[in-house]
Write a structure and sequence with these properties.
Layout lengths: L14 H23 L4 H11 L6 H32 L2 H16 L9 H14 L5 H30 L1
Helix pairs in contact: 1-2, 1-6, 2-5, 2-6, 3-4, 3-5, 3-6
């Protein structure tokens, strides 16, 4: 059966629907402002927000999600260092080798209960490569800080929305 736009039932948005949206928008706006004020790239903060919502069940799970994100950042930095070392010797094959090794390790992390959030790992890798920074502890700390701000904002948004839903 093909679902068409006409066959999907439409619901009228309720007041709580708009409240949920307003909460998310207000928290996102405040987090973006805070990110910019702290010298973090707002896009990096939103990577943390997205990582939080890959498994938004609790504050401790949010911390584990952030640890996976930060681990991805660290592996991204390690991958850049490996590429800088191997590319002059191996040429373009270095990329294939480094990606194979990093992907094998990251996907294997699904066996470790607190570090098994593979999407958050890959968000960390993506964020590191997208940032175009040198693989240094300061750069990793800045991206991890932005991710922590985004994760905290995701948690705050979720908690405020839960309070709205309770009323």
């Amino acid at each position: 059966m093909t679902v068409t736009h006409a066959s999907v039932p439409r619901r009228k948005p309720s007041l709580s629907f708009f409240g949920f949206s307003a909460i998310a928008a207000a928290v996102a706006s405040a987090a973006a402002f805070t990110s910019l004020s702290l010298g973090f790239a707002p896009w990096a903060m939103f990577i943390g927000w997205v990582a939080y919502f890959t498994r938004p069940t609790s504050a401790p799970q949010g911390v584990f999600n952030w640890l996976c994100l930060t681990s991805g950042l660290l592996f991204g930095a390690g991958a850049v260092l490996a590429l800088q070392t191997l590319t002059p010797v191996m040429g373009p094959f270095a990329l294939a080798l480094v990606v194979f090794i990093v992907a094998t390790i990251v996907v294997s992390m699904r066996a470790i209960r607190t570090l098994d959030n593979i999407p958050a790992w890959f968000l960390g890798l993506i964020a590191f490569f997208a940032s175009h920074v040198e693989p240094a502890l300061g750069a990793i700390a800045e991206l991890a800080g932005a991710g922590a701000l985004g994760s905290a904002a995701g948690w705050i948004s979720q908690r405020l929305q839960a309070r709205l839903a309770a009323h």
